[in-house]
Amino acid sequence: MNNNKRSYVSTVPKANPLRVGFIGLSAYKGWAIKSHYPAILQLPSQFQVTALLNLDIETSLATIKKLKLTKATAFSDVSSFASYDNVDMVVISVNVPELFTIVMELLENSKANPNLKYIYSEWSLGKNLKEAEAIHKAAKERGVQTIISLQGRKSPYVVRAKELVSEGCIGDINSIEIAANGGWYGYERPIKSPKYLYDAASGVSLLSIAFGHTIDILQYITASYFSEINAMIFNNIPYQVLLDEHGKKTGEKAEKTAPDHLLFQGSLSHGNVPVSCSFKGGTPVKKFSKNLVIDIHGTKGDLKLEGDAGFAEMSNLVLYFCGLKKEGSMNVSTGSSGAETMEVYHLRNYNSVVGNILRIYEAIADFHFRTNPRTKLPPKLERQGFLFEGFPTFKDALIVHQLIQRVIESSQQKTTLPTSFEAV
Amino acid sequence: MNNNKRSYVSTVPKANPLRVGFIGLSAYKGWAIKSHYPAILQLPSQFQVTALLNLDIETSLATIKKLKLTKATAFSDVSSFASYDNVDMVVISVNVPELFTIVMELLENSKANPNLKYIYSEWSLGKNLKEAEAIHKAAKERGVQTIISLQGRKSPYVVRAKELVSEGCIGDINSIEIAANGGWYGYERPIKSPKYLYDAASGVSLLSIAFGHTIDILQYITASYFSEINAMIFNNIPYQVLLDEHGKKTGEKAEKTAPDHLLFQGSLSHGNVPVSCSFKGGTPVKKFSKNLVIDIHGTKGDLKLEGDAGFAEMSNLVLYFCGLKKEGSMNVSTGSSGAETMEVYHLRNYNSVVGNILRIYEAIADFHFRTNPRTKLPPKLERQGFLFEGFPTFKDALIVHQLIQRVIESSQQKTTLPTSFEAV
């Protein structure tokens, strides 16, 4: 298998690119200009920005001018944006605390809009399970194809790891250890850093971001959800030291309710595989381990993913593989000709912030333009699940939210809990 | 501090060495001849074997002859051995399933023996908590000084790590990850391997050996017990493939009830430190991680202990340290003169099987002969706890057994459990 090759349509010019309405694209700040926009720029035949919505219309107008988005119209509110029929796809890249209201309003006000087919939202799709469920339900009723930015699934290292697992190159997985060190939630924080990042209720936390993305990647690679989990959530740093713009201590402190450590352990339903996870908050400063390690052990070999911080979905990783490999074979584990081999996968200049999201856009284009003759995807993708093809959907997001909810319950109730998502 | 320097009495000739009665020393097989005996040989002025008891008296007589134990008498049963008054210390090195009966019989039958002062037993002091409690109680009533072979505490790497922690060289510990791969309990086993090793009830298991020793070392280094724990015990390999003496598959299988994986997580009572542990059974074959890793992170630096298998107590380790260090200072963390430094500790030719036990014998000699002018040890050492000086006792063993019992309960009851040993 080679699921890392370039997508079918990505270089084919199209007369009718998907018209993209963007909520939260500013030329001046934010995540979208660093990730979504450079990705879309690489697919000019497939995507074209036609509408823009920001907190204020001035930002949208200035962005249109600066980025030369000649086909784009600026809007001042969600309802007029939602009813604009020159849009096939809406991309929502706003701060998580604001996401719920905007998405719900968009879905409500776009009901009469005949052309809107795709909604692509940033993870985490709402602050909590309740919001994610409501959004998922509303999107389903609205009938749009959803896409969620669990973009770690598109990391070339994750895809390669998944291939090696699915081809039996490490045999049956029998244990997994994960240790990650996230960026926020440590002893210090910049005084200008938005408060919601340190508020447990905001939905942007070690649990949703570092754990959510990483565990989604793990489930994707192993093609298994969890059957049982236990978690312990720590807030050992209830007050953080504030730093000025030069990184110097201001002498002030600020409250933090967001967790700074998560211990998680459980068994994967496929193979009852023990998984041990330690997610640490704060600056990644580990000296003798990489600050992101996913260590997968099997009966025939090992896989190890390493990165510089606990953000697997946007880090350039290194994949180490030792195991059996036979070119062209779909199932090495049963063949006797597989010889043990050792490989390292690393693209030194891979821009993972843009690259993983670019590959989501490629997957959307592949799905929409249907140029892949081998595609087995249905006309509507309810969830990607563990498919190589396609893209993660709101349903996939919901499954991660359900796991996070179980993590919170397990920690609060001090219990080991069953988790079953197969029947979701 | 330098707690790794040679003990005070180890080279001082003594007119009256401690007279050692040995249960389970055979010149031909077993653990004692590889570990205890070479250790005692290095301390001829402090220890002298005067009595020997094995399953049969022929083994003892042959051992006396072969090892030239000219002062030793062979015994044929525990009761006559126990009443032999030419013994100051009894060392018990037998298989764990037999340990309880022998120790209890020894304590019972030695009541009239005026000279017996020390009983040194192999870990795990009984098959389970119940046996360990009974032995501890009987030894206390008998009034002997107990010593337990939790010899990992005497590993020079463990002692050095403990020093660095206690001197504040890595600041406050804020997270710990442990991953270990034990030797037994995997997919295969030698046909001649004793059955009790694979029987969950035998008391020799991934829990008691790999986990027990390692977690005792961790608690010793951090000077903290656990306040809360969760565990999941796995037996994913209920049948093992049997191998002949050449390592070839015989085609037969044998039942295994002993666990092959333990997931453990919890918080240390001192600092509420999150600790994540994954103990894997089977041949240590990890390719991209050492098969024993203890990763300790602090606010000022890191410590990492690595070894080749999940038996920290008898492995030659490597200790990596990065943090603050000021020569001669007892508390670096509060001093401003500490500069970050990086060091690796490794004695290439350290024989850890003998060495750690030798250092227990040295500690016993130091304790008995009282030649250390700085000693703060009481006349009777109820437990070593987190002292550098002294040696682990039956009480220390009991504390580890209580933790193991909690691990079993946590896994069975699917709960996160409080653990408090301070008041034991």
Automatic annotation (TrEMBL), chains A, B:
Gal80p-like C-terminal domain segment(s): 156-307
Domain Gfo/Idh/MocA-like oxidoreductase N-terminal as annotated: residue spans: 18-146
One GO MF term: nucleotide binding
Protein's name in the database: KLTH0C02838p
Organism listed in the record: Lachancea thermotolerans (strain ATCC 56472 / CBS 6340 / NRRL Y-8284) (Yeast)
UniProt lineage: Eukaryota, Fungi, Dikarya, Ascomycota, Saccharomycotina
